[in-house]
């Protein structure tokens, strides 16, 4: 394994405290046309791993994706508190950013050229691509609120001794225990994943002001895989580090005409010697 692929310890995302609190979104592109649709939007509930799939036609717009989201997710589950995604043009558009940030939703995007931030959606994508291989031959209210005039009541967390009906208490207790067990199992799975992944990783840190070379290796799904030319440069730069972002990312002083996000995972960087 190349050293540049080993830099930076794994930093799992926080585990959501309830279903539909946080979701992840991604696209599977480059699929054969089916009724003029050739893109699949994948939405994963980060806590329970519940998944929705929706078909789209390429090119798609942020407005189209948002409409699909509102019609199929919002009306059934409400709005999440956070959305994890890559830096697809639909998610970085002014329309998407303004629409969801005004609703108080945190838009967490992966670092440039480092899609592992949203690893679970990438896993779902690969599973769906594998499954599909043999097959390759805006309303502001929910329907419930529109019908009844008020939003649907939500099931509160279990609080002991708040009901005199034993059956209700048991139901809420069992549901709360199931969620607690799910969170415990997710924490254990994350720790196992970190332990295994970090065996082949090196903790590397840079300082603000350091000069580094940048490796640009665009991530592509297997369905869109293309080989890079043998003579294509492996590293660009050097560029100066302006800021450290979190534990494993850095903001670089890129040229003004650069059309990419300036924050990169440490695995994309190589120290300039001398």
From TrEMBL:
Entry-linked Gene3D superfamilies: Ribonuclease H-like superfamily/Ribonuclease H
SUPFAM superfamilies registered for this protein in UniProt: Ribonuclease H-like
Protein origin, superkingdom: Eukaryota
Any GO molecular function: nucleic acid binding
Residue ranges occupied by any Integrase catalytic domain in the UniProt entry: 15-191
Pfam family, one: rve
GO biological process, any: DNA integration
Signal peptide: none
PANTHER family: RNA-DIRECTED DNA POLYMERASE, ZINC KNUCKLE (CCHC-TYPE) FAMILY PROTEIN
Protein name from the UniProt record: Integrase catalytic domain-containing protein
């Amino acid at each position: 394994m190349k050293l540049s692929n080993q830099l930076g310890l794994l930093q799992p995302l926080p585990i959501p405290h309830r279903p539909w609190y946080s979701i992840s979104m991604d696209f599977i592109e480059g699929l054969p046309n089916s009724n003029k649709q050739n893109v699949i939007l994948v939405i994963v509930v980060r806590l329970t791993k519940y998944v929705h799939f929706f078909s789209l036609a390429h090119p798609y717009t942020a407005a189209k994706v948002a409409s699909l989201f509102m019609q199929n997710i919002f009306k059934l589950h409400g709005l999440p508190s956070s959305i994890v995604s890559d830096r697809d043009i639909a998610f970085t558009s002014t329309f998407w950013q303004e629409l969801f940030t005004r609703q108080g939703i945190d838009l967490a995007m992966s670092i440039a050229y480092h899609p592992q931030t949203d690893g679970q959606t990438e896993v779902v994508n690969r599973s769906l691509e594998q499954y599909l291989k043999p097959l390759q031959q805006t309303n502001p209210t929910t329907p419930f609120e529109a019908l009844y005039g008020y939003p649907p009541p939500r099931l509160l967390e279990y609080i002991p001794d708040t009901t005199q009906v034993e059956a209700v208490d048991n139901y809420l207790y069992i549901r709360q225990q199931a969620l607690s067990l799910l969170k415990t199992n997710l924490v254990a799975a994350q720790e196992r994943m970190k332990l295994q992944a970090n065996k082949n990783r090196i903790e590397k840190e840079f300082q603000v002001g350091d000069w580094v070379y940048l490796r640009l290796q665009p991530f592509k799904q297997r369905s869109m895989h293309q080989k890079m030319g043998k003579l294509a440069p492996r590293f660009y730069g050097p560029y100066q580090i302006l800021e450290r972002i979190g534990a494993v990312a850095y903001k670089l002083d890129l040229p003004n005409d650069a059309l990419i996000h300036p924050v990169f995972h440490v695995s994309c960087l190589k120290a300039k010697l001398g």
